[in-house]
Design brief:
This protein is 30% helix and 37% strand. It is of the alpha+beta class. The chain is elongated and about 70 Å long. It starts with a strand and ends with a strand. This is Putative YigZ family protein.
Length: 200
């Protein structure tokens, strides 16, 4: 596993069934904190909605996930939403579907279809992007070798996660798994650079 698939844009789609209105929101998220923030945002925007159902999958291996029915019959909302995320094989994604009840009961099969369709529609609006699975490393070095360090970082398409650049520099980078070995060889060749792997 050297790559994973995700989204990097938000989108919203609408689906209607027998008077009920479903609004699906898709968000790129990295943490459960981000999930909570996005959920709070949607609830603030739709305080009068009957339900705010959602599902998310997080992590490059997609091991963290949750499906919430928010008062709908068990398994009729969160699961079909998660099913759409999984059918696209994407991760670091949250989909919230807001329902305004329209007076007619849809029944469990109707609900499953409505939540599934809402999630599918919103995902159709966003291109799926491929990202490198990265290993995190912490770099400490003197400002004088900054250019040498940055050259390797750029050539290997590393992501600069955080940096503190003064006379003495600290930097956290994400190294694509596909070039990790070669990148580390190059970094370790730079005199005066301390490279440490970040756990977790």
């Amino acid at each position: 596993m050297e790559v994973y698939f995700t989204i990097d844009k938000t989108a919203v789609a609408e689906f209607k069934d027998r008077g009920s209105k479903f609004l699906a929101y898709a968000f790129p998220v990295k943490t459960t904190e981000a999930v909570k923030e996005c959920l709070a945002e949607v609830k603030k925007e739709h305080p009068k909605a009957t339900h705010h159902c959602y599902a998310y999958r997080l992590g490059t291996e997609g091991l963290q996930f949750r499906a919430a029915d928010d008062g709908e019959p068990s398994g009729s909302a969160g699961k079909p939403i998660l099913g759409q995320i999984d059918s696209k094989q994407i991760t670091d994604v949250l989909i919230v579907v807001v329902r305004y009840f329209g007076g007619s009961l849809l029944g469990v099969p109707g609900l499953i279809n409505a939540y599934k369709m809402s999630a599918a529609l919103v995902l159709q609006l966003i291109p799926v992007i491929q990202k490198n699975i990265e290993a995190k490393y912490h770099l400490s070095f003197d400002y004088t070798i900054m250019n040498d360090v940055m050259m390797v970082v750029k050539q290997h398409n590393c992501t600069v996660i955080s940096q503190e650049l003064q006379l003495f520099c600290e930097m956290e980078i994400g190294v694509p798994k596909s070039t990790e070995e070669l990148c580390l060889l190059r970094l370790n060749d730079i005199y005066g650079l301390v490279v440490k792997k970040v756990k977790g």
